[in-house]
């Protein structure tokens, strides 16, 4: 009995205490993804002739806006709960931020930032998007530490059959049941997309300006649509419509249409020649 308890003991979501402040693994993991994305974006931006200060300045504006938008997005679709617990609205350290809200906030910030600095928004998005999906893949491990973003009840044998490491299986023991690790599926999908976008972006004459970003949107939304269907903690409209699935479908179709329309324009530069 003791061994069984030990093998299913959840990991502590608190990394350490700094005086009265509890530092959560969730925040550390998210911050790690952001820092790595910034470093890689700066390096690629330098190859494209973009001043590295633009990335630092943009992050200073985008990060707080993205966090606020991510939380507002989540709270809006869980208003029946938060209207009764308003004191928990700001408790982002316990999880409950929506990546689509963060992306919307980041893109809106980038639009106004690029207009103010008189630089191409499409070029900036092409540079940022591969590292963004990398950060998303890393950030899913914050959900892992918080035991959230999981799927339906499953069995330990089913998880073992997928060759999932023991320490992940143990963390998927939630509410006296093993759960489908949808956080893991999405993380792997995102990181695969990161590698793919890097490989394709540096292939000569493959992408025109803006198409790296549009490919990112299609890749992420395609995977998210199916993975979201496996989750049991989705934000819902009513009782049957999953918000993220609807938005994923809209984004995929919109990005595809825009990509096809822009490809018809012969005056757009190739990414490598920007």
TrEMBL record:
GO molecular-function term, one example from the UniProt record: glycosyltransferase activity
Bilayer topology term: Multi-pass membrane protein
Main location: membrane
Annotated coiled-coil segments of the chain: none
Any Pfam family matching the protein: LGT
Pathway note: Protein modification; lipoprotein biosynthesis (diacylglyceryl transfer)
Binding residues annotated for a 1,2-diacyl-sn-glycero-3-phospho-(1'-sn-glycerol), in chain numbering: 140
Keyword Ribonucleoprotein attributed: no
Residues annotated as transmembrane: 25-42, 54-77, 89-112, 182-200, 212-227, 239-261
Top-rank lineage group of the source organism: Bacteria
Entry keywords, A to Z: Cell membrane, Glycosyltransferase, Membrane, Transferase, Transmembrane, Transmembrane helix
Uppermost EC category: transferase
EC number(s) from the headed UniProt entry: 2.5.1.145
Cellular localization per UniProt: Cell membrane
HAMAP family named in the record: Lgt
Function: Catalyzes the transfer of the diacylglyceryl group from phosphatidylglycerol to the sulfhydryl group of the N-terminal cysteine of a prolipoprotein, the first step in the formation of mature lipoproteins.
Family: Belongs to the Lgt family.
Listed name of the protein: Phosphatidylglycerol--prolipoprotein diacylglyceryl transferase
Species: Limosilactobacillus avistercoris
Name of encoding gene: lgt
């Amino acid at each position: 009995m003791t061994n069984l308890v030990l093998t299913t003991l959840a990991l502590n979501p608190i990394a350490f205490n700094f005086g009265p402040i509890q530092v959560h693994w969730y925040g550390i993991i998210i911050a790690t993804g952001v820092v790595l994305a910034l470093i890689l974006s700066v390096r690629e931006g330098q190859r494209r002739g973009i001043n590295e200060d633009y990335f630092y300045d943009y992050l200073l504006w985008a990060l707080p806006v993205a966090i606020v938008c991510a939380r507002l997005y989540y709270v809006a679709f869980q208003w029946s709960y938060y209207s009764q617990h308003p004191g928990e609205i700001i408790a982002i350290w316990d999880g409950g931020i929506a990546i689509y809200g963060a992306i919307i906030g980041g893109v809106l910030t980038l639009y106004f930032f690029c207009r103010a600095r008189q630089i191409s928004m499409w070029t900036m998005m092409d540079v940022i998007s591969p590292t963004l999906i990398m950060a998303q893949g890393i950030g899913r491990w914050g959900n892992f530490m918080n035991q959230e973003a999981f799927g339906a009840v499953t069995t330990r044998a089913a998880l073992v059959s997928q060759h999932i490491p023991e320490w992940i299986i143990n963390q998927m023991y939630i509410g006296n049941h093993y759960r489908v690790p949808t956080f893991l599926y999405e993380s792997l999908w995102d990181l695969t997309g990161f590698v793919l976008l890097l490989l394709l972006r540096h292939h000569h004459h493959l992408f025109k300006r803006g198409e790296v970003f549009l490919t990112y949107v299609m890749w992420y939304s395609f995977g998210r649509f199916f993975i979201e269907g496996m989750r049991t903690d989705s934000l819902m409209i009513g009782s049957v419509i999953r918000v993220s699935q609807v938005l994923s479908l809209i984004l995929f179709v919109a990005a595809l249409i825009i990509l096809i329309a822009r490809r018809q324009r012969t005056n757009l530069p190739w990414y490598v020649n920007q």
